[in-house]
TrEMBL record:
Compositionally biased spans, kind Low complexity: 17-29
Pfam families: DciA (PF05258)
Region entry Disordered, spans: 17-55, 146-166
Signal peptide: none
Stretches with biased composition (Basic residues): 30-43
Organism: Geodermatophilus telluris
Record's protein name: Predicted nucleic acid-binding protein, contains Zn-ribbon domain (Includes truncated derivatives)
C-alpha cells in the first residue's frame, strides 16, 4: 500500500537527508586548512628570523652578507673621529684621506702637528683597538698649508708678489 501512494514532500526530504548523512559518513575526516605561506613553527622566547628585528641588527647582517665590513671600518674612522681620538685632539685636527692604510691628518697649527706626531703611536693603538687592526697602519700628520699666490693656470717663478708700488 505504501508503494501505491505518491511520495509526499516530507518523505522526499527525509530520503535526501539520509543520503546526505551517508555520504558525509563515507568521506574522510576534514583537516585544518593551511594558511598560504610557509608553515610557522614556534621559535621560542627570542624573536625568530621572520619576526620584526631591530634596525641595527638588520644593518649588521646586511653589511656582513654584502661584505662591506672594510668600507664601514674606513667610514668609522672619519665618522667617529672625535670619539676615537678624544674631543681635545679632535678639536685641533681632522682626518683628510685614508689610502693604502696611511691616514693623512691635517692639524690646525704647526705646534699641534708636532704634538700629534709625538702622539702618533698612541693614536694608532686607539684606532687599532676600536676600528680594527689593518685599517690604519701609518699616520701622517701635516700642518696647515700656506696660502697660495698662484692664481690661474699661468704663474711666474720667483719670490711671489712683492711691493712694486714704490
Amino acid at each position: 500500500m505504501a508503494e501505491d501512494r505518491p511520495a509526499r514532500p516530507s518523505d522526499i526530504a527525509r530520503a535526501a537527508l539520509e543520503a546526505a548523512r551517508a555520504a558525509s559518513a563515507a568521506r574522510p575526516a576534514p583537516t585544518r586548512r593551511r594558511v598560504a605561506g610557509p608553515r610557522r613553527k614556534w621559535t621560542g622566547p627570542r624573536p625568530g628570523d621572520d619576526d620584526p628585528q631591530p634596525l641595527g641588527r638588520l644593518v649588521d647582517s646586511l653589511v656582513s652578507t654584502q661584505d662591506w665590513t672594510e668600507q664601514t671600518r674606513v667610514g668609522a674612522v672619519f665618522g667617529r673621529w672625535s670619539a676615537l681620538v678624544g674631543p681635545d685632539i679632535a678639536a685641533h685636527c681632522r682626518p683628510e684621506t685614508l689610502t693604502e692604510g696611511e691616514l693623512l691628518v691635517v692639524a690646525e697649527s704647526t705646534a699641534w702637528a708636532t704634538q700629534l706626531r709625538l702622539l702618533a703611536p698612541t693614536i694608532l693603538a686607539r684606532l687599532r683597538a676600536q676600528v680594527g687592526g689593518d685599517v690604519v697602519t701609518r699616520l701622517r700628520v701635516v700642518g696647515p698649508t700656506a696660502p697660495s699666490w698662484k692664481k690661474g693656470p699661468r704663474s711666474v717663478r720667483g719670490r711671489g708678489p712683492r711691493d712694486t708700488y714704490g
